[in-house]
TrEMBL record, chains A, B:
HAMAP family: RecR. This is Recombination protein RecR. Belongs to the RecR family. Residues 81-175 form the Toprim domain. PANTHER family: RECOMBINATION PROTEIN RECR. A zinc finger (C4-type) spans 58-73. InterPro entries: DNA_Rcmb_RecR (IPR000093), Rcmb_RecR (IPR023627), Rcmb_RecR_Znf (IPR015967), TOPRIM_dom (IPR006171), TOPRIM_RecR (IPR034137). May play a role in DNA repair. It seems to be involved in an RecBC-independent recombinational process of DNA repair. It may act with RecF and RecO. One of its GO terms (molecular function) is zinc ion binding. Keywords: DNA damage, DNA recombination, DNA repair, Metal-binding, Zinc, Zinc-finger. Pfam families: RecR_C, RecR_HhH, RecR_ZnF, Toprim_4.
């Protein structure tokens, strides 16, 4: 890349591999790091390495953790009879912030024939094993309200249905603070379907 | 941050310190790195450290470089009588892409009384020294067309003016591919002022 030093160029290329980071943001981030104190930049680099070295998947819920079982699965204060099934570890983060007090099961993907992802590629076998071993009373299907997320939820419902465990699906509707005017029609019809007495 | 492993949480915090990276993108980037191959993630971390360890400021133009003088200043094919003055090293990158064949001088900031940045905080003394030592025939003032960039250009014009060196300012006007309808009035009036025979 023309008159730019090699180490600058190399880091710009690395940043560009990250999702949502284009050539301009990659350059901006790189030049920002140049101006940051050395200790802080090194701590950042070490945090990246630690992420890969210290984390593994929890053998119970398949969430990302430094311990196995993870500290949600090994906690004494969580309601282990409610298992919330999510697509990705990132979604555990979101649900934790919302105050959910049950435990999780991370599928690590969704069923997506177009991308060659079938049920056998997800942590579904592990989920069935948990249902046999643990005392689970409710499965909350919290895959995304997308086509693939819905298909995966539907697949799990059919698969687990015969086990007579209560299965619920997170609600779809208007986001809090949202505006009817800007909601798409599918979301609106879901919000209507899911209406409750008031 | 609730039920999230320490190394994940730490890296999210580091990402959040970068410009334009909010809590959600920081989490997304972190979880993306978890899925990336270990070698690639380690190469990324090493590139960050290299950036700080291998780069320094060129003693001539104050651009960021691995060598001193930088390979623009030490190149035999550049026109060293034209010096383009920019605010930040990142802008050298942009100008290099545009095909500029002179050399640079990086101020490392703009005059900004509100942020307590005066002329003495910028590489202006170094620029004056270059004007004494080197055979420079033209100074291209390429600070940004912002209030602070204009003020800095004006300051340099007054300071260097008496030395009877040709001074030019990059043109302001409509961006290529832009639309008159969406241009702000100041840009439009600049575009009109700067009109040329056609």
């Amino acid at each position: 890349m023309y008159g730019v030093s090699k180490s600058v160029q190399k880091l710009i290329e690395h940043f560009q591999k990250l999702p949502g980071v284009g050539p301009k943001s990659a350059a901006r981030l790189t030049y920002y790091l140049i101006r940051m104190p050395k200790e802080e930049v090194f701590a950042f680099a070490d945090a990246i390495k630690d992420l890969k070295e210290k984390t593994k998947l929890c053998s119970i819920c398949a969430n990302i953790s430094e311990e196995d079982p993870c500290h949600i699965c090994s906690s004494g204060t969580r309601n282990k009879s409610i298992v919330c099934v999510v697509e990705e570890p990132l979604q555990v983060l979101a649900l934790e912030k919302s105050g959910f007090k049950g435990v999780y099961h991370v599928l690590h993907g969704v069923i997506s024939p177009l991308n060659n992802v079938g049920p056998e590629d997800l942590k579904i076998r592990e989920l069935l094993n948990r249902l046999k071993k643990e005392k689970i009373t409710e499965i909350v299907l919290a895959t995304n309200p997308t086509m693939e997320g819905e298909a995966t939820a539907m697949y799990l419902k059919k698969l687990i249905g015969p086990l007579t465990i209560r299965m619920t699906r997170i609600a779809s509707g208007l986001p809090v603070g949202g505006d009817l005017e800007y909601a798409d029609e599918v979301t609106l019809s879901r919000a209507l379907e899911g209406r409750r007495d008031y």
